[in-house]
Amino acid sequence: MTPPDVTGLEKVLRAEVDGEVRFDAGSRGAYATDGSNYRQVPIGVVVPRTVEAGARAVAVCARFDAPVLSRGGGTSLAGQSTNTAVVIDWTKYCDALVSVDPEARTCVVEPGIVLDQLNRELAGHRLQFGPKPSTHSHCALGGMIGNNSCGSSAQAYGKTVDNVRRLEILTYDGIRAWVGPTPAAERERITARGGRLADLYEGLDRLVTEYLADIRRGYPRIPRRVSGYNLDSLLPENCFDVAKALVGSEGTLVTVLRAELDLVPVPPYKSLLVLGYDDICAAADDVPHLLEHSSPSQLEALDGRMAQLMREEGAYLDSLAVLPEGDSWLMVQYSGDSQDDVDEQAHALLRAVGRGEKDANVAFSDDPDREEKMLKAREAGLGVTARPPDDRETWEGWEDSAVPPERLGDYLRDLKQLFGEFGYDHPSLYGHFGQGCVHTRIPFGLKTAEGVADFRRFVERAADLVASYGGSLSGEHGDGQSRGELLTRMFGERLVTAFGELKALFDPRDRMNPGKVVRPNPVDGQLRLGPAWRPATPETRFGYPQDEHSFTRAVMRCVGIGNCRSHTGGVMCPSYRATKEEEHSTRGRARLLFEMLDGHADSAVQDGWRSTEVRDALDLCLACKGCKSDCPTGVDMATLKAEFLAHHYEGRVRPAAHYSMGWLPVWARLSRLSPRLVNSALHAPGLARLGKRLAGVDAARPAPVFAERSFLQWWRERGTEQPDPADPRTVVLWPDTFSTYFHPSIAVAAVRVLEDAGFRVAVPDKPVCCGLTWISTGQLTMAEKVLRHTLGVLRPYLEEGTPVIGLEPSCTAVFRADAPELMPADQDVRRLAGQVRTFAEQLVWVRQLNPSARSRLPGAASRTAGRTPCSATAMETSWWPRSKPKLPARPQQPSSRTSASRWARRISSRSASNVMTACWWQWA
């Protein structure tokens, strides 16, 4: 097919569509893939400000014969959210809850609204949308409708298709209508009016009539059949429901503009029963027995392999701690109107299966917090299995099959045998066992021709296997490109022909998400990796010890789960929450870094480390390291950003902020010459504006105020004798820039608390710094110099194993993570990483070591306060965020040893960089 006139298309979209029109390399790279194995660089991206603008964008694309892909959260695992098309991202603006009818228990939504946000807005009515996939914090309703999403709650509420009442749709050729159940009389009225809509309904009638027997015989009667188009919804006994027929069509038939949804009451009470088994197949065998004796709202499974991975990764340990004995588990949740009711449901099941609450292989809870912990472990399956600690890369491709629950155990045995035949060593098996749906990730070899050929042979064999069990290729993730080519093995030639005819009715020009479901691209085509993928292997400054010392592998930690697009909870990703922009999420940045590696001939980013697109995407990254903890696969965007900036600006002039904020510790020390004068200059109206402009700081941002007396001045005036590093009571209090020069009262209070706890406090008598501001701005050579000097000052304490106590969590994060990666061979760096503690950790250590200290510590400690922000969470301790060089808040006073005239002479005789370095070492 002739490619569209891209230049003309972009021009008209900008002129006619109320939205953001982006055909730049950065936007195209950020949307080049989803959560799947596939990659297709889009033509461009449109972010409509209204639903009407989105409809207008489709009309313009039709005028230019350009393919269209509607996209929600972009978490699809089968490749249905990536295409060489104009991507319409509905999530930034078209996210309204249009109306709610509490009595009818219905609502109308726009396609971009996120599921959790919808349920928060419905909470006042004690209603919710029933299906709840594991991506509920960031998946959009439009995507759920396109995918026919389910989740664990489908045990009680069914799939998305079971909860959709009507859809407002738009076809590529301009039909716009509300569709839903359509009795014969209504169809007659539609056809009597004539026009394209009448032709469409007449065609649907003919299609159902011709394939009636095939539809009734050919669809598996199982709870989790998501594969294929829902032609069964057009049967007379199903009220010829056009809306339900379109659910799960993956954007290949129509654009969904609005949806009317059925809602369900929020159950006020829940209980959870966890049953242990010897292996996952035995657990699956017991599912029919459990369903025979109860009607749970969830019935989930977790195997020993996943539990092992969680232990190795140190993840969800609280959840694992409450699991009963066994090597695999079934989690059976009940919901109801009273606590007695849900508790009795659980106990009745135990009696029916011959177990008791006190048995070692049984755990029972009616505590909502404890239940949430248990279920979180199961919900985290994709992230835990995507990047296991043994460094095997695992992939989707056969991650979502479903069979009749009564045949689940035998299916799993055959599937494990197939794994063994292909050498795919024991992938984790888990999922929604109450509905026969199995999730897994498999170590396919997607980088070699042999590995890709094995991948193709495996999925073909697996498709035949699941079909032999009367199952479905997909139980909730859809077909897309992963399974589109395999549909004939499940449905047979006639029904797949019927799918093609349905596509031709709605989209005769094949412009709606082409290459998916109908006339699909090959299962081994358009791979994100593949045997032709040849990424650059650049020299790097950081060591990446957790990624085989490879920048590429560090970038590839992102598998597209999309937790960084959540709107509440956790700490990731602040820049996405502020902008709602894909390229300002952790995932979007990782996608652009992947494109920067130039592994494909059509890579959107072509200029490597010098890429302005990657630089712009990283510009709003706060380097807070929130992603390192919140991302299920542990993407460390702060380190990747520092690496990129180091190369991007190598040998080039940097932005002013890199000199002003990146060298903040130097300027803080120089403020000691006259803090009052510095403060006056920073707040003098004209001078302050000029200074901010020269420093690259936004004029609206208030300037910091330096403290009249620094913490180091207070310490020297106090005259405390430095303790012996070998004294077991000695601790080093780390004098970070912020608590030293802006908020010295914090450091002073910390000294008093530590002394009250029985410690002898030492403070370095020479200038020290962790190098954070230089690392954050990519000035890694200078950061390394600073760290080496600091290690020299701390050496006596490092040799004696003296604890180093950090008040600023960002500094602590540098010592534990960044410094070891930047200087992996330095033994003192390793020692410091092991000896550094946060203030909170030190107090906890004291209380555990010496319970008698409990009576003293609370009084002193009550004068301190804190929170747990990004970098604290990243390092699993309570630290402050490691943000873009901060503008501090309050000022202090210097102890200058060198006169201003001597500094002036030095400035005249050295380069700017050397002057900064001289300032650093001379001022304390």
Report the principal-axis shape: globular
Distance between the termini: 70 Å
Radius of gyration in whole Å, from Cα?
30 Å
The residue-averaged pLDDT reads 90
Helix amount: 40-55%
Order the strands across the largest sheet as they lie in space. 5-6-10-8-9
Lay out the secondary structure.
Layout: H1 6-16, E1 19-22, H2 25-30, E2 44-48, H3 51-63, E3 68-71, E4 86-89, E5 97-101, E6 106-109, H4 115-122, E7 127-128, H5 141-147, H6 154-157, E8 164-170, E9 176-179, H7 184-193, H8 196-210, H9 212-218, H10 242-246, E10 255-262, E11 264-265, E12 269-277, H11 280-293, E13 298-303, H12 304-313, H13 317-321, E14 328-336, H14 339-353, E15 362-365, H15 368-379, H16 381-386, E16 401-402, H17 408-422, E17 430-432, E18 437-439, H18 449-468, H19 487-491, H20 493-506, H21 551-555, H22 574-579, H23 586-596, H24 612-619, H25 626-630, H26 637-648, H27 656-660, H28 664-670, H29 675-683, H30 685-695, H31 711-718, E19 730-733, H32 737-741, H33 744-756, E20 760-762, H34 772-776, H35 780-800, E21 804-806, H36 809-822, H37 827-835, E22 836-838, H38 839-849, H39 857-861, H40 870-874, H41 900-909, H42 912-922
Parallel strand pairs: 2-4, 3-4, 19-20, 19-21, 21-22
Antiparallel strand pairs: 1-2, 5-6, 6-10, 7-11, 8-9, 8-10, 12-14, 12-15, 13-14, 16-18, 17-18
Helix pairs in contact: 1-3, 7-8, 8-20, 11-17, 17-18, 23-24, 28-42, 31-33, 35-37, 36-37
